[in-house]
Amino acid sequence: MKVVHLNTYDGNGGAGRACLRLSDALKASGIDSKVLVYYKFGQNPKIDTFSKSPIQKAKAVYNILAERYFAKWLSKSVKTPFSLQWFGRSVIHHPDVKNADIIHIHWINHGFLNPKFLAQLDELEKPIVWTFHDSNAFTGGCHVRYGCENFHHQCGNCPILKISGKNDISHKTWLRKQKAYTELNFHIVAPSKWMAASIKFSSLLGTRKATVIPNTIETKIFKPYVKSEAKKILKINPDKFVLMSGFMPSKNDKHKGTPYLIEALEILSRRTGIQKENIELVIFGNKENVEMPEFPFKTTFLGTINKDDHLAKCYSAADAFITPSLEDNLPNTVMESLACATPVIAFTTGGIPDMVKHMQNGYLAEYQNAEDLANGIEWLYHRPNKEEIQKAARLSILTDFSEEVVAAEHIHLYETLVDLQPK
Length: 423
Description:
Layout: E1 2-9, H1 14-28, E2 32-39, E3 47-49, H2 54-74, H3 95-99, E4 102-105, H4 115-120, E5 128-131, H5 169-183, E6 187-190, H6 193-200, E7 210-212, H7 227-233, E8 241-245, H8 258-269, E9 279-284, E10 298-303, H9 308-317, E11 320-323, H10 332-339, E12 344-347, H11 352-355, E13 362-365, H12 370-381, H13 386-400, H14 403-420
Parallel strand pairs: 1-2, 1-4, 2-3, 4-5, 5-6, 6-7, 8-9, 8-11, 9-10, 11-12, 12-13
Helix pairs in contact: 1-14, 7-9, 8-12, 10-13
């Protein structure tokens, strides 16, 4: 069976990582799987691109920048990503797409597959699978909804757009998607139960069949290391209780919930029984700069980590990974942390409860409740049997998210769809 995966970028972002991880898992299970991207930044030989020649690259860069510039120009000054999908390119004549038994779509924004070129895939008469890594496929443009329910209807009156009304750009985009989806039959994969439930409320795709299959992770790379040794690698005292968190653009960032983390740490630092000098905060993904907020504990900024094996050691050095994200499908950082046997403390939101089991392999705090986030950290800080929770974290990934498990679920879906094809 030949499967071709389509994604805008090669591992640049969570969807790209998830796409490549799935392809590798499928290949390990004997499937002929290939990843094709619109624009390739890296040198990974396992990934091919539609934009090889200088002219094709220039056209792709133009589409990507134009899509992002116009969206930013038409949107309010908010952190919520929005796609217009005015720009795009056809892929139906590429030999790998034409020869595939299954076309598996992933994240295809930023000038890649707009509604017109999506609908064009119908001409190939092949089973199409589409994994929704965010909400954009069933909204009028936004990727993260933050409680907005306009997608239940036909969008319009968009809170993100500068010029908002019944027939605004979000409604017009909704209409373009409706036309494309009417012409194209595809099967939806939702990486989380939360995403599957969201789709059911969608006016665009609420009646479509969706299968919940999670993303996977390289369990032989993201694995536990001896915690005391991992702390030494980061030049951290092995006796310190280490809290780790991921990329934070600024304290005003909305999507990542940074203000809640700051507040939770402030609350924690004032509690009886918490020794401030015994706690260290480690942040990866952003170097220390003037925009970074001040934290009540000693803080180490690791910057961007490009090597997964070193990232795994960083996770292993932590006693807890904290993610205050306010809306996330199935965040890679949570899965990576658990795979490295590091418990996760997070809000009860999105697909995080699919991975974090309350007080078993981590702590699920009440949504947008900084006090409860602090409770989770304190719970683990005073926990006498930390090793049991660490083992439960690793086991939860091996049981439900390993390469073999996730590949088998996808292969079953592919075979079912191929069998349903007219002979």
